[in-house]
Each structure stands twice: as C-alpha cells, then as structure tokens.
Amino acid sequence: MLRRCAMNGGEGPHSYARNSSYQKGFVDVAKPIIEEEISRKLDIKHLSSTFRIADFGCSTGHNSCAAMQIITEAIRRRFEIEGLISQLPDFYVYFNDKVTNDFNTLFNSLPRERLYGAAGVPGSFHGRLLPKAVLNFAYSSCSLNWISEVPKAVLDNTSPAWNRGKIHYEGARREVREEYANQYSKDIESFLDSRAEELVQGGLMALLVPAVPASWDPNSAYTSTSELYLFGSCFMDMAKTGRFSEAKVDSFNIPVYFPIPQEFKAIIERNDKYTIERMEVLDNPGKHNLTGPKDRAAYFRATSEGMLIDHFGSEIIEELFDRYTKKLEASPLFSDPDCDKSIIMFVLLQRKPESYCSAS
C-alpha cells in the first residue's frame, strides 16, 4: 500500500526547510487575508481562557511557524482593538504531521519570541487526532493535495484503472483519474468530518489548498500535474536501461491529487457542518524563487524522496533527479516560472452550531 512519507527533515541541501520557498510564497500572500478574516469573523467575547490552534501538515516547521505567528498576532491585535487585552487567552498550538515527520527540526525552529505554547501531534490528518470541541482555529497549508493512499485499482493489473508505465494520473486513462478523484473526495470528506469533531462551534478553519485551473493550454503552460508527468517519464527511461524493472514502476504511483476549485467547493458543500466564509484563488510569488531547473528538481526532491527510497531504494536517487533536472533544462516551458499555472485556493470555513447541521 503506497502512502506519502514525511518531507525531508533536517537543514541540509535536500531538506524541506531549505527547499520550500515555493510554499512560503502562499503563506506570505495569505497573511493579509488571514488577518482580515480574524478581525471580521472571530468572536472574541465568548472565548475561554485558552485558545487552541492546530496546523495539519506542518512538516519541519519553517513555514508553519510563520503562519502560527500570523494567526496569534492577529488575534492579539483584535483583543487590543476591542480594549480587551487584559483578557487575552493563553495560546496553544498543536503541530501535526506524519509519525515519521522531523519534529526535532520543527521544535528547534520555533521562534524564541512567540505568543504560544507548542505540542506535536503525530498521525494522519485524514482521521481524528484531538479531543472533541478543543480547537478554536484549524489551519492547513499545501498538505490537502496528499491522499491517504494510492487507489488500489490503479495498481491492479486486472483493473481498467491499472496505470501501467506511469506514476500519476496525468496523461493516463480516464479510469485512473476517476480513481484518484474518488479517493481524494473520500479523504477530504474524512478530513472535514474529523475537524468538525475537534473544532468548537463557531470555530474557524483556514485552508491553503493546491489546485489546478479548470482549463489551461499545455502547449504554453504547465501545472503540478504536468511536472509529475515529466518526472514519471524518467522512471521508464531508467527501467529501459535495466536500473529496475518496468513492473517496479507499475507498482508505484504518487499519492497526490490536484482538484479544480469547483471540485473542492462541491466536496465542502456536501458536508453540512461548515459555512464557506471565503474562497478565492491566490497568486504565488514563491514560484519566482524557483529560478531554474535545479531549484525545481530540489523542491520536488524535498517532498518526494522518502517515498521514492521506500519503493526503489536510495541508490537510484541521484541518477533519477539528474535525469529529471536535464529534462527540465531541455524544456523552455518548465524553465519559465511565468508558465506555471498551478494555483492555490484560500478557503475559510466556520464550524456551524450543531443545531444548524442536518442530514441534508
């Protein structure tokens, strides 16, 4: 069963900490929106003495710490504006990611001057992690594109959805994409249901969700899915040289899915536990931090190396990313960050009171 692994830990040249400027761009552009929504939507007059926040999919912390600073400082300013600073609650932040996540690097990254206490919560965010009605604010950035597992039919050579010779649904048969989409829908539904149990009534949840436009021209632009298609071609090239078997490629697919905005909105609307307070597509200035093919390959290596090693072994990694870098260099399309049409959605949800939830 193929599942995602944690991002590369530590502070080394292949670490997520050193290769996540792309994701940081989204945090930067979301900052004024988060601040605005906290000032408008957060009910501070009915809070207890403790305000609990969770980041689901925190990785090794550099971008997560920045986001938690934005959220806690925005709440503090709200109390100041309302003349209630003497009633400012104690802040606690729960940092969640896979059990194998490098929480040591995360806790070493915590700023000395911060408003919150911190705890690690290892485990899959597709299920329950915290006690009922404990969270006031939930947050997740660049994590909800990961599905809990590769759909079984994609790896079954007797299924119409068998994804022979590919590692992702981009460029594959319609049945493959449908299996991925169904798995994604189930996983997001589970995520929303789990957070609904953990959030207090009226609690807020801010999501930064990687996505793709409903339509784009592959001859003049690319998205995260087309990068995965290019990356996948490297595996078959290596299989043909005898580095591993084609069957080894057939048994590997990357557990990641990029919805279109309408698709994600429809999943939320099927869940009756939230109101959508805001939903929009953001720009990403971080894509200009990936100044060339080597940076793009390093960014992808930081997010995928763990699961690649699990399946293929560590001895193929250098050759694989060398091949990938050369393919990126040979493409004028992938060398231009302005051709990147991948998008991210900002979604703000509010937990409905139980009396407003219904089976409909």
UniProtKB/TrEMBL annotation:
<keyword id="KW-0460">Magnesium</keyword>
<dbReference type="GO" id="GO:0008168">
    <property type="term" value="F:methyltransferase activity"/>
</dbReference>
<keyword id="KW-0489">Methyltransferase</keyword>
<dbReference type="InterPro" id="IPR042086">
    <property type="entry name" value="MeTrfase_capping"/>
</dbReference>
<dbReference type="Pfam" id="PF03492">
    <property type="entry name" value="Methyltransf_7"/>
</dbReference>
<keyword id="KW-0808">Transferase</keyword>
<dbReference type="InterPro" id="IPR029063">
    <property type="entry name" value="SAM-dependent_MTases_sf"/>
</dbReference>
<dbReference type="GO" id="GO:0046872">
    <property type="term" value="F:metal ion binding"/>
</dbReference>
<dbReference type="InterPro" id="IPR005299">
    <property type="entry name" value="MeTrfase_7"/>
</dbReference>
<keyword id="KW-0479">Metal-binding</keyword>
<protein>
    <submittedName>
        <fullName>Probable S-adenosylmethionine-dependent methyltransferase At5g37990 isoform X1</fullName>
    </submittedName>
</protein>
<dbReference type="GO" id="GO:0032259">
    <property type="term" value="P:methylation"/>
</dbReference>
<comment type="similarity">
    <text>Belongs to the methyltransferase superfamily. Type-7 methyltransferase family.</text>
</comment>
